[in-house]
Specification:
alpha+beta; 3-stranded mixed β-sheet; 3-stranded antiparallel β-sheet; 3 helices; binds zinc ion
């Protein structure tokens, strides 16, 4: 499902602790268990600022290039508050897991790819 933020395995370097690795199937099952089958209702948490976001948060920014899959790899702040750097302490921030450093704690194994995604927000 998430194809943004895809990287070759050797490019994935997570920062700040061990990541949880799961298959795409396991990830889908976990999401469905938490939020139901409608992925638009799944909630994800930015690993930098803690912002909780859903697909619908990105829909107003479609013309600016936002896509549904961004919910798993880009903080909404990239569109709403692009000046909020990940070190600013502000929320939402402009973090992307497609950048130099990846803080994501969940890695999906899919075919021969490792896809770092935001954690589900279980709150
Ligand atoms: Zn953020």
């Amino acid at each position: 499902m998430p194809d943004n933020g895809e990287k070759k395995a050797e490019e994935v370097k997570t920062v700040g602790g061990a990541a949880v690795t799961m298959t795409l199937d396991e990830w889908n099952k976990k999401g469905e268990k938490l939020f139901g089958p409608d992925k638009k209702k799944w909630r994800f948490k930015c690993p930098c600022c803690g912002n909780v976001q859903m697909v619908k948060d990105f829909e107003p920014f479609a013309e600016m290039g936002a896509e549904p899959n961004d919910v798993t790899c880009n903080c909404i702040g990239r569109w709403t508050h692009p000046d909020n750097t990940i070190n600013s302490g502000k929320c939402p921030c402009n973090y992307t897991s497609g950048g130099l450093f990846c803080f994501n704690k969940t890695i999906i194994l899919h075919e021969d790819k490792k896809i770092p995604v935001f954690e589900f927000s279980e709150e």
